[in-house]
Amino acid sequence: MPRENFDREISAVSNDLLILGGMVDKAIESSMIALKNMDNQLAKDIIFQDDFIDRKQIDIEERCNNLIATQQPMASDLRTLISIIHIGVELERMGDYAEGIAKIAIQMGKEGPLKPLIDIPAMADISRDMLSKSLDSLVNRDLIAARNVLKQDDEVDQLYQRVFQELLGMMNADADVIKRATYLLWVAHDLERVADRATNVSERVIYLITGKLEN
Q1: How far apart are CA 185 and CA 13, in angstroms?
Q2: What is the distance in angstroms between the CA of the first residue and the CA of the last residue of the chain?
């Protein structure tokens, strides 16, 4: 394959990775709306759309593998393709967490959340911001921006601990709320994992730029 065509293929699969990121971001946003409004139809739509996220990720991986197998790229090109594969997997898992939140929204039924949603939406907002910034750092090959995303993960962890402690206290005080509190713990855990995955994306961007993995 001529170099020009190879570059075009890498650009195309990179663009599809960004499209996948947009799909995942939308799923996370919609899952929080479904949770807040107890919107079962929206929750079902998110669950249905997850299949498209899965297929997109598989398509990206297969195209990258094909380029690696047929073009035998060297150095920076190989790092780019490997990074795209890894980031695609991270994005697909984030989509799974959004699907999980949608399923929890359905399980809650008409009861609604046990308590006003304050810290949990904040976790979602920060996680989505981390996702957006990590993908921006990929596009711009911005090492500083990628490292800044790693710092945001601490904010999500702190919110998660606050939610966990508050809900644990409510369960200890009243056994009747255990089921509803557990639903919110699951949501908080899923969002904490979204932030972890966004951190992984940034770490992969750092690897792409420097050739070294940072923890």
Answers
A1: 36
A2: 36
Here the contacts of 186-189 (C-beta below 8 Å, separation 24 or greater) are 186/100, 186/104, 187/35, 187/101, 187/104, 187/120, 188/119, 188/120, 188/123, 188/159, 188/160, 188/163, 188/164, 189/160
pTM: 0.92
Superfamily name and number for 3-210: Phosphate transport system protein phou homolog 2; domain 2 (1.20.58.220)
Q: Give the amino acid at 59.
A: D
DSSP string, 141-167: T-HHHHHHHHHHHHHHHHHHHHHHHHH
Q: Do residues 142 and 175 lie in contact, with contact meaning Cβ atoms separated by under 8 Å? A: no
Q: What CA–CA distance (Å, rounded) separates 86 from 199?
A: 12
Q: What pLDDT, in 10s, does the model give residues 14-48?
A: 999 999 999 999 999 999 999 999 999 999 999 99
pLDDT band at 215 (very low <50, low <70, confident <90, very high): low
**Rounded distance, CA 58 to CA 25, Å?**
18
**Residue 108 corresponds to which amino acid?**
M
- Give me the residue spans of the domains in the chain: 3-210
The yes-or-no verdict on residue 178 having pLDDT over 80 is yes
**Tokens of residue 84, six digits:** 């795209």
How is residue 16 written in tokens? 């599809």
